[in-house]
Design a protein that fits this description.
heterotrimer; A mainly alpha (72); B alpha+beta (154); C alpha+beta (344); A: 72 residues; mainly alpha; 85% helix; B: 154 residues; alpha+beta; Immunoglobulin-like; 2 domains; four-stranded antiparallel β-sheet; 8 strands; 17% helix; elongated
Chain lengths: 72, 154, 344
């Protein structure tokens, strides 16, 4: 029981972090990592939020890379 | 062949064996005993005479009979929505109430009224002990005891 | 395509498709609920919800899994493939409703957290008949969830097509889990063998379709081309290729689609740039080769997507001698214009 509860709490924290990350990502980050998202609709930005919440480490990594390239 | 479609074919070749085996094994595993579902309340008419009633905060349980006392029913009325969605009623084997050895009477859900037929053989017994058992969480919820349920109190 | 993303890429065809899905689901639920109410008056509202949504989701899952092989066996089914992902998201929605109602019904009313209860209320992992079938359903739902949230093209680009395809291949595992969820779950409480027969029939149908489609392709790929002249291979008589359609030839492990358009033949690489869809299984719409998977388009004579899109595929040389089609399997760089071959 403690084992499963721990896993569930870790999952919840991971998803919560993803949700927090999703806000700046759909506002700004998405257009940095994918040119197809530049000038895209709000509908699109909302529809990717569930995915961002789950796959946020991949996107964060891409975002960091993209801004590094921009700076250099 | 493209690697992706090759992978599809490989998966389905494996599934061609796994799926039928799983389905057949699952079928064979169906317990031989009459499943619980069939012991749900019958739509039978309520018998007219109430022999005994036990009140509980959440439900009312009564033993009913006809005027000649040849048939018996257990009536279960939920007053509020129960906090367990589905439970079964056993007649406990004496002594102890190990549900595995007890006789199944019926299944109730969180809401609604239920009527279950009681076997005429029961009429001889002087005591009817019912166990309300939550089979999902494997816990006894309540035990209800009727004394001399098949005779009018003297 | 390469223009800006939109939330849902609706066009007229996709709207018709979606209305048909909605109509079908509504009719199914209505029928299921009314038939159940007639047959079993005692049924509770919760049970109705749980059973109607689950059976609908299982039905849709079978349709979804059948579409792929059906299209490879017969092009008539291609319209079904066009918008399969909307069907997938619909299926997930019903599966989620089923899972949600079930967790609420069976686990939420106690004092344990419903998700903890889901896993600890039954721990008979060493038993087959009493196996915690709810966990099987939960993991299948998790796979469907990951697929549904990544169904937008954005995810294909940003998770890379390889990762995306691999993730979506997990649908087969999910199907296996669903079958066992049904077999070890509701079937264990049912006396009627008709449910087992339905599940078995569904599985046998899907297995047959997939194996048939796979072996058909294997045959196509094993065909040897022996007649060679100056780098060109003889592939087929010219009249075998229907107008606005293609035939696919596999030479040196590369698939090439030879299209017929306005009495000329053009050859392009068979693999769509979007998701690797089989271009040769599509047709020409508005003068463009249109991928059967998601409608990406390419011009037959140069393999380029019409502006503003930027996708390009390789082109090949093709010629006709005495009504016979000869194909040169050496590709030109992506987007190179080729003259094609006129059919006399």
């Amino acid at each position: 029981m403690i084992f499963i509860t721990t896993i569930l709490i870790i999952m919840a924290l991971y998803l919560l972090a993803g949700l927090v990350f999703a806000i700046p990502f759909v506002i700004k980050g998405v257009a940095v990592i994918d040119e197809g998202a530049r000038g895209s609709s709000w509908g699109f930005r909302l529809i990717i939020i569930p995915g961002v919440t789950v796959f946020w480490p991949v996107l964060l990594n891409k975002w960091l890379h993209a801004s590094k390239i921009k700076r250099s | 062949m493209k690697p992706l479609r090759k992978r599809h074919l490989q998966v389905w070749t494996a599934w061609a064996i796994l799926l039928p085996v799983g389905i057949v094994l699952g079928w064979l595993a169906v317990p031989y005993q009459q499943p619980v579902k069939l012991l749900q309340s019958s739509a039978a008419d309520l018998l007219p005479v109430i022999m005994q009633t036990k009140e509980h905060n959440d439900y009312t349980v009564s033993i009913r009979s006809d005027h000649k006392h040849t048939a018996w029913q257990l009536e279960w009325k939920n007053k509020t929505a129960l906090t367990y969605p589905s439970a079964v009623i056993y007649k406990a084997g004496e002594p102890g109430n190990d549900p595995g050895k007890a006789e199944l009477i019926g299944r109730i859900e969180a809401r609604g009224d239920y009527v279950f037929e009681l076997k005429p053989g029961l009429a001889q017994s002087s005591r009817l002990k019912l166990v309300l058992y939550d089979f999902i969480h494997e816990a006894v919820i309540d035990t209800i005891i009727f004394k001399n349920p098949f005779r009018y109190p003297e | 395509m390469s223009a800006s993303y939109v939330a849902v890429g609706w066009n007229r065809q996709k709207k018709i498709y979606d209305w048909l899905i909605a109509g079908f689901c509504f009719t199914y639920l209505l029928l299921f609920i009314s038939v159940t109410l007639i047959v079993n008056e005692q049924v509770t509202f919760e049970t109705l919800l749980i059973r109607s949504t689950s059976t609908l989701a299982v039905l849709l899952l079978h349709v979804i899994l059948a579409i792929g092989p059906l299209c490879r066996l017969d092009k008539k089914f291609l319209p079904l493939l066009y918008n399969r992902r909307h069907l997938g998201v619909t299926m997930f929605t019903f599966a989620l409703a089923h899972g949600g109602f079930s967790i609420f019904q069976f686990h939420a009313l106690g004092n344990t957290n419903p998700f903890v209860s889901l896993f600890i209320s039954n721990t008979n992992f060493n038993s087959f008949a009493a196996f915690p079938f709810q966990a099987l359903g939960f993991f299948a739902l998790l796979i469907f969830f990951l697929m549904a949230i990544t169904s937008h093209d954005f995810w294909l680009h940003n998770l890379s097509p390889r990762v995306w395809k691999t993730l979506h291949m997990f649908v087969y595992l999910a199907y296996l889990l669903v079958v066992m969820h049904v077999m070890l779950g509701v079937i264990q409480y049912e006396n009627n063998p008709v449910f087992v027969i339905i599940i078995l029939a569904g599985a046998v149908t899907l297995i047959t379709l997939h194996l048939l489609a796979g072996s058909k392709e294997r045959k196509l790929d094993k065909r040897k081309f022996s007649l060679e002249q100056e780098g060109f291979m003889y592939v087929c008589p010219a009249e075998e290729i229907e107008d606005s359609r293609a035939k696919i030839f596999c030479i040196d492990k590369e698939r090439i689609a030879v299209y017929r358009h306005e009495n000329k033949l053009y050859a392009i690489h068979n693999v769509c740039k979007h998701q690797g869809g089989p271009l040769g299984e599509g047709k020409i719409l508005d003068g463009c080769i249109t991928c059967p998977w998601h409608g990406y388009q390419y011009l037959p004579h140069n393999g380029q997507s019409p502006p503003p899109f930027k996708e390009k595929v390789s082109t090949y040389d093709v010629k006709i001698i005495d009504g016979k089609v000869w194909l040169n399997p050496v590709p030109f760089p992506e987007g190179t214009e080729r003259p094609g071959a006129t059919i006399k």
